[in-house]
Amino acid sequence: MARIEYNYPLLSHNTFGIEAYADRFVAYDSVEDLRQVVRRLRADCPDVPVLHIGGGSNLLFLSDFKGVVLHSAIGGIECEERPDGIRLRVGAAVVWDDLVAYCVEHGFYGLENLSFIPGEVGASAVQNIGAYGAEAKDVITAVEAVGLRDGEVRMFDASACGYAYRKSIFKEEWRGRYAVTHVHFRLSATFRPNLDYGGIREALSAEGIRPEEVTAQDLRRVVIAIRKAKLPDPKVQGNAGSFFMNPVVPREVYEAIKGDYPDVPHYEVDAERVKIPAGWLIERCGWKGRSLGRAAVHDRQALVLVNKGSATGRDILALCEAVRADVLSRFGISISPEVNIIGGCA
Questions:
Q1: Is there a catalytic annotation at residue 252?
Q2: Domain map of the chain by residue range?
Q3: Does the structure show a pLDDT above 70 at 346?
Q4: Which of the residues 146, 219, 251, 262 has an alpha carbon 20 to 30 A from that of 187?
């Protein structure tokens, strides 16, 4: 059954800790509840803005939301063993890291590098979350959704979801058109560790664990430790994790930067393109640990923007734009927000 609230505070629904209100807030427990809500909304007020949110770990509100905010409470993890692997159907409101923990515990492998990413399962399919050499698209097979214009249920094969680095068709071309209700994954019953990213090998070595001895539990524990060491806890200091996407640039741009900065880190994309860490670019511009009003760049991870206390969404956005301008001026590279900015554009 759907629950409707009016003039609803969104403070607890965004990890930046921004005070904002929604004209209406609707929480629903099932696909049928959502369908009924959408059909009623479109019949009674067809032009009202609708925003669907999950855990709020990738949102920046610039103002109150003058419309309807929808929030899912659809849970559940269904498992089926097949010859090609372990198939999971997971409710959109399941906490992402709870899913990772569940899979590691039950011997379902493929999510270990994505441990401790905040948010819910539905957002994983929208954002194509990723970390330490892995992305959600690597294991997603299909996405179930409800149209926010007609209330119809649809199933999208992963090949139709337009997945790319931190992108999907739900985030780009179909932004605001669908609410994800369930995500389908294919995992493996065989553990094949991915250790070649983000200092994982070094962290395992520091614990005396050799690559051939590592378990899924070891890998998950190390990834969590690395993330905790680098990223602030949103419960202590408001943030949305990595604020910017790592830019993918033509190889000649990378070579030009390497001429001035021989130590520039990079990741090969293909023969023509290279990915450069946005955090490195931001740090070289002198922003790491710096503040602009009530917003700041985190002092341990320059990818992260933080709320120093009572910051507004526009305070965070002003810092974002200042950082982007300096990176563009110094390196000729435009870095883009990974965070969804609600109420304006960057």
A1: no
A2: 3-72, 77-187, 238-342
A3: no
A4: 146
Q: DSSP E strands: which ranges in the chain?
A: 3-9, 21-28, 50-53, 59-61, 65-72, 77-82, 85-91, 130-131, 134-135, 140-147, 153-157, 178-187, 238-242, 248-250, 267-268, 273-275, 291-292, 295-297, 304-307, 340-342
Q: Which fold has domain 238-342?
A: 3.90.78
User: What is the Cα–Cα distance from 229 to 195, expressed in whole angstroms?
Assistant: 18
Region of 60 please: left (phi>0), alpha (psi -120 to 50) or beta.
beta
Q: In this predicted model, what pLDDT tens digit does every residue of 256-278 receive, in sequence order?
A: 999 999 999 999 999 999 999 99
In DSSP notation, 218-281 reads HHHHHHHHHHHHHS--TTTSEEEEE-BPPPEEEHHHHHHHHHH-TT---EE-SSSEEE--HHHH
Active site residue 177: no
Strand bridging mode 295-297 / 304-307: antiparallel
CATH architecture, range 3-72? 2-Layer Sandwich (3.30)
Report whether pLDDT(81) > 60. Answer: yes
Verify whether residue 330 is a known catalytic residue: no
- In this structure, what token pair is assigned to residue 17? 């800790």
pTM of the full structure: 0.91
| CATH of range 77-187; options 3.40.50.980, 3.30.465.10, 3.20.19.10, 3.30.365.10 | 3.30.465.10
Q: Which member of 35, 166, 220, 227 is catalytic?
A: 166
If residue 93 lies in a helix (H) or strand (E), which one and from where to where? none
| Residue pointed to by tokens 């669907």 | 52
Q: Is the pLDDT of residue 344 over 60?
A: no
